[in-house]
Write a structure and sequence with these properties.
mainly alpha
């Protein structure tokens, strides 16, 4: 796998999972083809746009702060890097890493008892 350090895509996915809905992470994690990976990334980023425009009042502060810190230029760069992956094995490794990072980041938004 190339040496890119995916940071923004996992953060976007984690913010989308702030309330316990992991479907963007799950869909991406179970995808085996680049066209579907790109489709699910597009869907996640679109949902992120909507969330950023109208964040819910009950959104944890950590998630809201992370949402505001996402760098759109680097997010675009990471999407391009995914699009440039040629081998299926490398694509699966990158997507697995992204999803694992997203789940790890999303742990910060779970409050005790949730």
């Amino acid at each position: 796998m190339n040496e890119i350090r995916y940071k923004q895509i996992p953060q976007v996915l984690a913010v989308l999972a702030h309330g316990g809905d992991y479907h963007y992470i799950d869909r991406l994690g179970y995808t085996h083809s680049k066209p579907l990976v790109m489709y699910y990334l597009r869907e996640a980023i679109r949902a992120f746009h909507a969330l950023k425009r109208s964040p819910p009042k009950e959104m944890p502060n950590a998630a809201a702060e992370l949402m505001q810190s996402i760098n759109p230029n680097y997010l675009e760069y990471e999407v391009e890097q995914i699009n440039n992956v040629e081998k299926t094995k490398e694509l699966r490794e990158a997507v697995s890493l992204i999803c694992a990072k997203a789940l790890a980041i999303a742990l910060k938004f779970i409050e005790r008892g949730d």
